[in-house]
Specification:
Elements lengths: L5 H13 L3 H10 L5 H30 L10 H39 L3 H13 L31
Helix pairs in contact: 1-3, 1-4, 2-3, 3-4
């Protein structure tokens, strides 16, 4: 079984994040782009990755042909050999960058979904922290009172005094 390509990695990341097969997600990204702009971004990155993944295969095949056992490249093929190796490294670096970009889009989607829960979740976490329930076992009284958390934005600090 061949190694997993960058395109395979990106596809599994996208399928896992959205919980649907990639074929369904491709249709959703095209038909309803405004419904989920992060899906559309991930699919655009995946499309660019498919092109780069194809370039990786082409450069690998070329290098395998030039370095196959028993074959001695001619002098004029040495330049082709080194340029193919450099092109392969560039294509692999681009593939890695695209996979990282897909991960960042998925992270942004997860961050947006937690932000959609609203301030209620943040207020309940602040209330638990203020009550001291998070730092000691139930039934115990905290040693010192916990100061109240600020609810609004903090006031700007005054400039240097003269």
């Amino acid at each position: 079984m061949p190694d997993t390509t960058a395109l395979d990695q990106a596809t599994s990341i996208i399928e896992k994040a959205w919980g649907q097969p990639i074929e369904v997600l491709e249709v959703l990204a095209v038909r309803r782009p405004c419904d989920d702009p992060l899906l559309r971004s991930a699919m655009h990155i995946r499309t660019a990755l498919a092109i780069t993944d194809n370039a990786v295969s082409v450069h690998q095949d070329r290098l395998h042909a030039l370095t196959r056992p028993g074959y001695v490249p001619a002098f004029y093929e040495l330049d082709r050999l080194s340029s193919s190796a450099a092109d392969l490294r560039v294509a692999l670096a681009e593939s890695g960058a695209y996979v990282r970009a897909v991960r960042r889009v998925v992270e942004a989607r997860e961050a947006a979904s937690t932000a959609d829960r609203g301030p209620a979740a943040n207020l309940s976490r602040a209330a638990v922290a203020r009550s001291g329930l998070a730092s000691h076992a139930p039934g115990q009284v905290p040693d010192q009172p916990v100061p109240a958390a600020a609810v609004g934005p903090s006031a700007p600090s005054p400039g240097p005094r003269r």
